[in-house]
Amino acid sequence: MSELDKIQKELDYYKKKFSVAEHDLAIDGYLSYVALVRQQVDFIKDFKIKENIDGKKTETVLYDRAMSMGEGLPDMISKMNKLKIELNIPFDENDGKPKLTATSPQNIGK
Q1: How many C-beta neighbours within 10 Å does residue 27 have?
Q2: Quick one: angle between helices 57-86 and 25-46, nearest 10?
Q3: In this predicted structure, what is the pLDDT of residue 38?
Q4: Where are the alpha helices (DSSP H) in 20-102?
Q5: Torsions phi, psi for 64 (to 5 deg)
Q6: Are the CB atoms for 18 and 27 separated by under 8 Å?
Q7: Residue 87, CA atoms < 13 Å, CB-side half-sphere
Q8: What is the pLDDT of residues 64-100, one digit of tens each?
């Protein structure tokens, strides 16, 4: 199978999976959760501590919110990854193929 065929197969999988999102509340919710996490990551990535701890009350509030967001982010990412696995979102090109198991003396005769 060529690289282009593999990419096409993966694209077809995701098209099928996410077209269901219009009707599947779980996948739609997952995509919304991912968007929220991305916004938080972008906010924290662009946040500059030096610019937000001058002592002004509004800047301190912004700093506090950014720190709170940053502390909660690892937990949110873990939950997002668990949800992705639970909803069977990641593409697996071996899906549907028999899985190879270890050879043992008990299963040699089978």
Answers
A1: 19
A2: 140
A3: 94
A4: 25-46, 57-86
A5: -60, -40
A6: yes
A7: 21
A8: 889 999 999 999 999 998 988 888 877 666 665 545 5
Angle, nearest 10°, between helix axes 25-46 and 3-19? Answer: 110
Tokens (6 digits) for 72:
């909660």
Q: How far is CA 52 from CA 89, 91, 98, in A?
A: 38, 41, 56
**Structure token pair of residue 7:** 């990419």
As given in the structure block, the two tokens for residue 45 are: 């990535």
Q: Is 30:20 a contact under the CB 8 Å cutoff?
A: no
Q: Pick the closest to residue 91 from 8, 14, 7, 28 (CA basis).
A: 14
pTM: 0.59
Q: How far apart are CA 55 and CA 7, in angstroms?
A: 52
Asked if residues 18 and 8 have their Cβ atoms less than 8 Å apart, the reply is no
Lookup result for tokens 């099928």: 16
